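Exercise 7. Given the components listed, write out the predicted structure of the assembled complex. Treat all entries as one system.
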Amino acid sequence: MRKILTVDDSTSMRQMVRATLQSAGYDVVEAADGQDALEFARDHAVDLVISDVNMPRMDGITLVSELRSLPAYRLTPLLLLTTESSQEKKLEGKRAGATGWIVKPFNPAQLLSTLNKLFQTA
Amino acid sequence: MSEPIPLPPLLELATAQLEVALQNSNSHVERLAASVDAFSRLGAELRAHADPVVAEHGARLLAEALSAMFAMQYHDQLAQRLQHVRDALGDMHDALAAPVPPPARELLRVIRSRYTMQDERKLFDVVLGRLAAAPDDTDAEQPALRGSVEMF
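Answer.
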């Protein structure tokens, strides 16, 4: 079973992402901010990360950058899921090493379809 | 002569009222999300049932739960917008209470920089654009981005 790490400081958003992913059979682990996520990722392997951008302690773009510096996460798909729509931020995410950018609110079916494609090409 | 309007405490009160409203609403939405989550899990379980009628009901239950989740995300956007308003009121309070207030343009720049949504920036520019000398960056944002997926 593929394991996905979801990162968001909003409990309700984490619940919604988790429910969507579990409905498709994914194993889901959660973190409340980038720092928590990074600490988890250092000790545990996951197949994909979905992270919010604006969070306390460590934002999603810094998290992507930090994960890319870990050998185990060099090729792992890292998606940013955010209300942020500015081109500047998106470019920052891309430069940090994000695989894709999803603007909230996410469409559950579209998110699952995106993951399917990513795992097929992985 | 009438008493001056006590702006700093009024701004502090507005900030506190928004904070309480956000906390109350978040706790209820989390409860609601937990229920929708439970429905979606039940739907996913029933969808795999051997009886095709039960499986069909399960699939419909799951589809409805996912649809509810999509709609509930608008609460997250509302909460973010209210947080930005709360923070802006806090900035105004601090500016008014400071012995030397910051320049108005700096205050407006800080308030605008917190926005994450295109329509927040657009509304700010419509109302305060000339005062703030805000960067003309909203046109660079594509319309109707919500829900979009862009792979790099």
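Discussion: Residues 1-74 of chain B form one domain. The mean pLDDT of chain B is 86.
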